[in-house]
């Protein structure tokens, strides 16, 4: 319908929501075809088809997120283990001296792992910033034009990420703790640097 107001042409678009008694795919398809024959009907949107497409999209996004979480977890384990392993290898004499002086194995592990925990905390804080940016990018680029995702993040998401990262760090600490207990202190102190 063409409306004229103040010399400007306006178009009013009308739409109707129709609920069919028979929800079968054949009935919906037959009704859609019969309505599209009319010149006054421009398009038909089936909410069942749209909700199915959105459901498929979110399921595929869930799989993508699961893969990202698994790969980032493996990367965190490898990086933390390698950093701690290099730290222990470089400081074997120092750790042996501390052990000879009477420190318990748990205290030696805490001595080594204090630095790693500080670096883990810094990594979590930096990860929050880059994770927020990555989340915004994914939400805006992955959504089709006719779908709007909720861009809000809950505080529990950040808490889960931090707890999960600290849990990975603690697992690596347990592995390194067993390695530290097996260091031969006499051989380490005899070696010449």
Structure, explained:
The protein is mainly α and 193 residues long. It has one domain (54-190). Helices cover 70% and strands 4% of the residues. α4 packs antiparallel against α5. The N and C termini lie far apart (90 Å). The model has no long low-confidence stretch (mean pLDDT 80).
How are the elements arranged and paired?
Elements: E1 2-5, E2 8-11, H1 25-36, H2 47-90, H3 92-100, H4 105-142, H5 155-181, H6 185-190
Antiparallel strand pairs: 1-2
Structural class: mainly alpha
Order of SSEs: EEHHHHHH
Strand order of the largest sheet: 1-2
Compute the average pLDDT.
80
Query: How would you sum up the major sheet?
Result: 2 strands, antiparallel
* Count of alpha/pi helices: 6
Give the overall silhouette: rod-shaped
Tell me the span between the first and last alpha carbons.
90 Å
Unreliable stretches covering 5 or more consecutive residues: none
Determine the strand fraction and express it as a percent band.
under 5%
The radius of gyration is 31 Å
- What oligomeric assembly is this protein in? single chain
How many structural domains? 1
DSSP, total strands:
2
Helix % is over 70%
What tags apply to this protein structure?
193 residues, mainly alpha, two-stranded antiparallel sheet, 6 helices, 2 strands, 70% helix, rod-shaped
């Amino acid at each position: 319908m063409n409306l004229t107001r103040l010399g400007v042409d306006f178009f009013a678009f009308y739409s109707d929501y129709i609920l069919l008694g028979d929800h079968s795919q054949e009935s919906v398809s037959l009704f859609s075809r019969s309505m599209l024959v009319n010149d006054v009907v421009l398009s038909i949107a089936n909410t069942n088809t749209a909700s199915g497409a959105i459901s498929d999209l979110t399921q595929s996004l869930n799989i993508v997120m699961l893969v990202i979480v698994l790969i980032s977890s493996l990367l965190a384990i490898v990086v933390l283990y390698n950093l701690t392993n290099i730290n222990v290898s470089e400081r074997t004499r120092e750790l042996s001296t501390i052990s000879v002086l009477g420190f318990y194995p748990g205290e030696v592990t805490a001595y080594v792992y204090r630095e790693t925990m500080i670096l883990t905390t810094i990594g979590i804080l930096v990860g929050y910033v880059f994770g927020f940016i990555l989340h915004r990018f994914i939400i805006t680029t992955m959504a089709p034009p006719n779908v709007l995702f909720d861009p809000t993040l809950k505080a529990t998401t950040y808490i889960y990420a931090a707890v999960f990262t600290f849990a990975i760090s603690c697992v690596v600490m347990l592995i390194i703790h067993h390695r530290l207990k097996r260091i031969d202190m006499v051989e380490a102190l005899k070696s010449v640097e």
